[in-house]
Specification:
single chain; 312 residues; alpha+beta; 3 domains; 7 strands
Length: 312
């Protein structure tokens, strides 16, 4: 959430607390009760989308990469055993079909690497009996199949997590607009019913409706970029931050927010300041596969961005 939304949510909580304190006063008033129920029902929805918005997607990506490495390691071992058997059996067709090395696997895209590992698995199943004496037992082949399944299961999760974060941000904007509209167009008018009959309730409601500004420190983005698989820092990687949505193209000072570029330093790190908002980040360097991701910068907080690039 942005600072304005956090300030408004704090106000929502205050209004809800006052209304709950005086529930006995208004519970028999059908008009006020209906308005309050409609308005207060927005708060759990806001909280749910807030929690989704701040989900950490780095852990999801890290888990995917770990499972990818495990799958590749198992596939290369079985592939090596197949090649050993293929040379002895003088089977050039099989040798060609499993002639993949570590570089081939690591350069392959996510879906491609699954195909390479599956090709090795199918050959291993076909020659399972012969491979036992070459060190690839039925258990090892089964482990490879399980690793392929585990990686395939998490393959789309990083993208899904980013998509969910973006959707939650959009939902929050709509929910706050709806809640504020109910407050100003209905609840603020309905409270007048109690101005004389319940002056304490009326007075405390008016006080709760004040939105207090909670100023925060400036926003920072702390980034790092490493080579996939090895963790080696990469210098000179270009990060291009483009604001998402026309509503975020203007900063709080009224200035147009243009795409911002930053390059990683010697140890693959960078630090920069960005206005609060959601950005589409293009990550590129000659010789590496370009990546694009969504980053949400929260006002007053440090946002961490870790990227793993694969060689082209």
């Amino acid at each position: 959430m942005n600072t304005t939304q956090e300030n408004e949510l704090t106000m929502f909580y205050s209004v809800r607390d006052v209304c709950e304190l005086y529930r006995a006063t208004w519970s028999e008033n059908a008009v006020f009760a209906a308005t309050y129920a409609l308005w207060s029902g927005k708060i759990p929805l806001i909280e749910t989308n807030r929690d989704t918005q701040v989900l950490e997607t780095t852990g999801v990506t890290t888990n995917k990469n770990i499972k990818r490495e495990e799958m590749i390691e198992k596939a290369l071992f079985v592939g090596n055993r197949l090649q050993s058997y293929g040379y002895v059996a003088n089977d050039p067709e099989m040798l060609e079909s499993v002639a993949y090395n570590d570089s081939d696997m690591k350069r392959a895209r996510d879906t491609e690497v699954v195909g390479l590992c599956n090709a090795i698995l199918e050959r291993a199943k076909k020659h399972a009996a012969e491979l036992v004496s070459y060190g690839a037992t039925a258990e090892i082949i089964a482990d490879l199949e399980a690793a392929i399944g585990a990686y395939s299961e998490v393959l789309a999760k990083p993208k899904l997590a980013k998509s969910q974060t973006k959707t939650a941000t959009e939902n929050l904007s709509a929910l706050f607009a709806e809640a504020n509209k109910i407050l100003t167009k209905r609840l603020d008018l309905d409270i007048e019913l109690f101005k004389k009959s319940a002056p304490d309730f009326y007075s405390q409601y008016q006080t709760a409706r004040i939105v207090y500004s909670m100023k925060r420190k400036s926003n920072s983005v702390l980034g790092s970029v490493v080579l996939a698989g090895s963790g080696e820092p990469i210098k000179g990687v270009l990060f291009r931050f483009t604001p998402e949505g026309t509503e975020q193209l203007v900063s709080k000072t009224g200035e147009t927010v243009k795409p911002v570029e930053k390059k990683s330093a010697e140890k693959g790190n960078f630090r920069m300041k960005l206005p609060e908002g959601t950005y589409r980040v293009a990550v590129s360097k000659t010789g590496y596969r370009e990546q694009e991701l969504i980053l949400t910068v929260v006002d007053g907080e440090t946002t961490y961005l870790k990227v793993e690039l694969e060689r082209a």
